[in-house]
Amino acid sequence: MKEKSSRVRAIKEIEVLDIGDGDYQPKTTPDEFRRFIYEHKSKAMVDKRMDVRTAVKKFIKNGVSIAIGGCSFVRLPMAVVHEMIRQNVKNLTMVAGTRTFDLNLLLDNGCIKHLEIGYIVGMEVFGIPRLTRKKVEDAIARGELTINEWDNASMAWRHKAAGMGLPFLPVRNMMGSDGFRRSGGIKIRCPFTGEELVLVPAIYTDVAVVHVHEADIYGNCRIYGAINEDWGKMRGAKRLIITTERIIDTDEIRREPEKTFLPYFYVDAVVEVPYGAHPTNMPKMYYLDIDHIKEYMNASRDPSGKALKEYYEKYIFGVDSFEEYLEKIGGKEKLKYLEDLERQRKNVDGEH
Question: Which residue in 24, 112, 284, 315 has a CA-CA distance of 20 to 30 Å to 33?
Fold first, then answer.
């Protein structure tokens, strides 16, 4: 009994070793999140189909916190990103690990006021879009954009914590680097082992948007290939918009339930958008449109800003829908070419 008492005292006095200089957003607690789900989300199997315009207008309001699915140049929900820009959504808090093209478009158009982020602005092998970087630097200097810095791994675990219904997770990264110093993490001594750990806070968002391969009308959905942080993003969002390459029959879902990545009761909107991840890669379906990415990058290097303005006028403001945008980038011929590239890549990797 004496041994147990000393152990209880030790646990009650968990040693805090250091606190990062950063902060974190959003600050929704697990219980607040649960109450919202209980009060506002039904488990009834109802048809949730709607178009992109309606989904954005209904769920993505000015000032909300948002997580976007996919990662790098893979499976980004670009149809929704375009529509957010067209609807002039502002003052968003964006939470993400690695973001590239999707976030750059939102930053270019002044949609973001706060970032919880691991990697931004850079377009990896394509380089850095100069005007986007300049806009971000200027917005930070004017106080119009704030950033809390994390790394990709800690952001993934923050989403996972939300998906598990927890307020935080203990992790073993960031220690020994300036990454911890700039984060909102807390370093402690583990009460069980005495080892050093970092606590990272969960991310519960107002809305998440994820592009998937297949879904039924209720929201049961499938993702093929890397899932990145989407397991936590989808489960930790008050509202979830699913865009899908195709809608399939629920009987097909039931025949192979093991393929269901997320069940329907998490989902608020199902939007069928073929090629909805263009110009990014949709694994097993179509490859990254390198030519289009280069067109954006070239426009972003024009110091006058004229070329970038023309890019947005041509592909977002000058069209009424994502379908019209797909015609502008080359239509069926270009999309078939990207499909063929993805099939060739699969064959090279040994997939048949």
Answer: 112
